[in-house]
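Fold it.
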Amino acid sequence: MRCLKCGRDIADEQVFCEDCQTDMAQYPVKPGTPIQLPHRAPEPPVKKKPGKEKPELKPEERIARLRRRVRWLTLALAAGGAVSSGMHMYIYDMFHESAIFEEEYVDPDSVEIEFPEEKRNLIYIFLESMETTYFSETLGDDEEEGLIYDGD
């Protein structure tokens, strides 16, 4: 018997063609029956456009081209990172004057601070890496009472 798909001779009791794995139960053909194999028309040759062929590059040229691509990629990633992190606004603000101090600054000598009878706010000042000799005489300061309030 022959496979109807690929045309290979196979045994009558075989269920599948060994070459194309076609199920022979789908194609019940008695032994000795002449069959016509499918014919494919030859594919037309692919036409290459003139002048579009890339020459084979030497390894040194390939490395140089790869390095240029890596440089451009690095530049693009750095620019994208700067834009996404807000670096462009920082650079813009460096070269443009702002009127925030003229609009918001209040001279402490020109303002009288009034404290309400009932205090409402808690001010917590944290000194990091402060000189410890400013605490008191026991910690090395020259003064009896330290310059930094210790909460007592």
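DSSP finds three helices and no strands in the chain.
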